[in-house]
Amino acid sequence: MVNTLSQTIEQLCKEKGIDSEVVSHALEDAMVAAARKYFKTEEDLQASYDPETGTIDVFAVREIVDEVEDPAIQMSLEEALDIDETFEVGDYIEIPKPTLELGRIAAQTAKQVIVQKVREAEREIIFEEFSNQAGNVVNGIVRRYEGRDVILDIGRTEALLPLTEQSRNETYSMGDRIRAVIIKVLRLAKGPQIVVSRTDPSLLIRLFEGEIPEVYDGTVVIKNAVREGGERAKVAVASLDNSVDPVGACVGMKGSRINAVIRELKGEKIDIISYSNDIVDYTVNALNPARISKVLISDTVARVLEVIVPEDQLSLAIGRKGQNVRLASKLLGWEIEIRSEEEKKREVLGQIDQLEENAKRAIPLSELGGVGEAMQLRLEKAGISSLDELVERSVDDLTDIPGVGQKTAEKLLTGAKEKLESGKEVTEEVSEETED
Questions:
Q1: Less crowded by CB within 10 Å, the N or C end of the chain?
Q2: Domains of the chain
């Protein structure tokens, strides 16, 4: 029996790939649980498994004290000395319990606890194995569907391919072999859940590494990659070796390298572009294949770009359902506003017309009665050349102008407002005042 127990534990550890100590502790916990159920005691029970002999001892642990308050976990010094004269207060004594009396209950409890501990150990091993593999590609076999999610057999465990991570142009049947990238590993009560994706950009990067030697050895660097799984992707590449063309290296002879990736992604269109530190050049490359006329930086803080294209390139730059500009924007990390040359031209002409119209409507200072040439020069020097600009100032603003006092400022503002409202000339003389 001893040999049988030892052999069973040894075989179990080899099959499950777990530490024998985990099974030993599980066995000890099982015996303690069985003893508690059998003896119905409040004692502090513990168990010890000897792997050499294959025996399991169960014992109650009691603390030696001067005065016993809880007999279930304490023993008096006097009683302890009857067992061994070397005991002192504060020591602990182990009192053996009869394990043969546990019988069938012990066996059943031990089996249940061992199974549970082994399962927990397996789950922990799987979690540790895959928790650091986010971004790695795994090969899986489609085993079943759970709703619209796909369950893959990836060897030692299963992986979940959610509907949101499935490519739009792919369908999966039982037994299909597919490659997917691990995006996260979750620790759940029922065990670790490995979530994989067919649409994540990291899958594209791993496929490039597998098909393109220059990417694998680091000569060509993938700066960024964005995808709309199953439809289109953009990959920005740069070369650390001036003699190596990054785009050409990725495409391969007659497209042999990139076509291998496209086949794996079931026909997904892939744009390979040259990375540039210059945002203008990078934008022109990112919007390929559209021809770009001009790139304007609208807002450096909000990271907004305005891109001007010829009229016949507008739909190409935007792409089907806005896909080209949307992917380019993700690739750059900037918001892109696409305008045609005609639209931009109309906008600029409209702004010029508006400025001219405003200039025509502006009433010069000379139209305000009583404003002498000297006062007009003072106001113009302060940036005020019309009545519209005058009324936008406050009394305090005007008194900051040399030669304009409080009363003069008030009269100027009153006169300008009346002139603008009625269009009638104000003839009240405005005299120059000096500051006190």
A1: C
A2: 2-128 (3.30.1480.10), 133-197 (2.40.50.140), 208-274 (3.30.300.20), 276-359 (3.30.300.20), 362-422 (1.10.150.20)
